[in-house]
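Let us practice reading a record.
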Amino acid sequence: MGIWIELGVFLLALAWGLWQLHDLKQERRKREQRQREEAAAAASLATNPVAPPDAAPAAPIADQGQPATTAGSPKPPSPDA
Protein backbone atom coordinates (compact mmCIF):
# COMPACT_ATOMS: atom_id res chain seq x y z
CA MET A 1 0.00 0.00 0.00
CA GLY A 2 2.80 2.45 0.89
CA ILE A 3 4.54 1.90 -2.44
CA TRP A 4 1.50 3.31 -4.27
CA ILE A 5 1.60 6.48 -2.19
CA GLU A 6 5.30 6.89 -2.94
CA LEU A 7 4.67 6.24 -6.63
CA GLY A 8 1.86 8.82 -6.66
CA VAL A 9 4.08 11.45 -5.01
CA PHE A 10 6.86 10.68 -7.48
CA LEU A 11 4.50 11.04 -10.44
CA LEU A 12 3.18 14.35 -9.10
CA ALA A 13 6.73 15.67 -8.67
CA LEU A 14 7.61 14.48 -12.17
CA ALA A 15 4.53 16.16 -13.69
CA TRP A 16 5.31 19.41 -11.85
CA GLY A 17 8.92 19.35 -13.09
CA LEU A 18 7.85 18.78 -16.70
CA TRP A 19 5.33 21.61 -16.41
CA GLN A 20 8.07 23.94 -15.13
CA LEU A 21 10.35 22.98 -18.04
CA HIS A 22 7.53 23.70 -20.49
CA ASP A 23 6.99 27.18 -19.00
CA LEU A 24 10.74 27.83 -19.07
CA LYS A 25 10.92 26.98 -22.79
CA GLN A 26 7.99 29.29 -23.55
CA GLU A 27 9.58 32.21 -21.71
CA ARG A 28 12.91 31.59 -23.45
CA ARG A 29 11.16 31.71 -26.85
CA LYS A 30 9.43 34.98 -25.92
CA ARG A 31 12.70 36.55 -24.75
CA GLU A 32 14.55 35.49 -27.91
CA GLN A 33 11.73 36.83 -30.11
CA ARG A 34 11.79 40.16 -28.26
CA GLN A 35 15.58 40.37 -28.65
CA ARG A 36 15.29 39.67 -32.39
CA GLU A 37 12.67 42.42 -32.75
CA GLU A 38 14.83 44.90 -30.82
CA ALA A 39 17.86 44.03 -32.94
CA ALA A 40 15.85 44.51 -36.14
CA ALA A 41 14.56 47.87 -34.88
CA ALA A 42 18.10 48.96 -33.97
CA ALA A 43 19.36 47.89 -37.39
CA SER A 44 16.62 49.82 -39.19
CA LEU A 45 17.33 52.86 -37.01
CA ALA A 46 21.02 52.61 -37.85
CA THR A 47 20.23 52.68 -41.57
CA ASN A 48 17.74 55.56 -41.23
CA PRO A 49 18.73 57.67 -38.19
CA VAL A 50 16.32 60.55 -38.96
CA ALA A 51 13.60 59.56 -36.51
CA PRO A 52 12.29 56.32 -35.07
CA PRO A 53 9.04 55.23 -36.72
CA ASP A 54 7.09 55.23 -33.46
CA ALA A 55 8.14 58.74 -32.39
CA ALA A 56 5.27 61.21 -32.49
CA PRO A 57 5.99 64.84 -33.33
CA ALA A 58 5.89 67.17 -30.35
CA ALA A 59 2.71 69.22 -30.09
CA PRO A 60 2.89 72.96 -29.48
CA ILE A 61 2.25 74.12 -25.92
CA ALA A 62 -1.10 75.69 -26.83
CA ASP A 63 -2.34 72.32 -28.13
CA GLN A 64 -1.60 70.63 -24.81
CA GLY A 65 -4.32 72.48 -22.91
CA GLN A 66 -2.02 75.04 -21.27
CA PRO A 67 -2.88 78.73 -21.46
CA ALA A 68 -1.13 80.69 -24.17
CA THR A 69 1.33 83.34 -23.10
CA THR A 70 0.29 86.96 -23.58
CA ALA A 71 2.50 89.76 -24.77
CA GLY A 72 3.01 92.49 -22.19
CA SER A 73 4.88 93.31 -19.05
CA PRO A 74 6.38 90.48 -16.99
CA LYS A 75 4.79 89.39 -13.74
CA PRO A 76 5.86 91.28 -10.62
CA PRO A 77 8.12 89.31 -8.30
CA SER A 78 6.43 87.27 -5.60
CA PRO A 79 6.56 88.63 -2.03
CA ASP A 80 8.54 85.55 -0.90
CA ALA A 81 11.47 86.41 -3.18
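A brief commentary: Residues 44 and 50 are 11 Å apart (CA to CA).
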